[in-house]
Amino acid sequence: MNEQTFRRLFHFCKDDLPVLVEALKIQTIGSSQGVTGSGEEALLMGLRRLAYPNRWWDFEHIFGFPSSALSNIVSQLFHYIGSTFGHVLMDVTNHSSLTLSDLEQFSEVSTLFAHLRNCWGFVDATARPICGRTVNQRTYFSGLKGSIL
């Protein structure tokens, strides 16, 4: 797959994938259906799911796995990342690489460009509807006219 197609599908640079797999220490992940995916495959599945939230069966032709296995592998991947690196997000003020000035800069960007006050970013820079007009409407209403995000 060429770089342009890869970038369009995963919102990520192809050359950065092995670096990210190594940094996140992702090993082979197996599904409860007996299907296994390499660390790179699992990360690609997760990145694709985050980049554009298709139905699982839409991914079957991309990855060659049944939708139930895709769902299981990505769930295990996100659980692994959360349990291994979740502490990094729990207290963003407790990191030597993230200074107070960095947080202030991120906050300024959020204030200038974000329509949602309780959201710090979008995976693909697009806000998408997440619920129906009657389900959790008050909880998820963003304030944007005509949309529940």
From TrEMBL:
Protein name: Uncharacterized protein
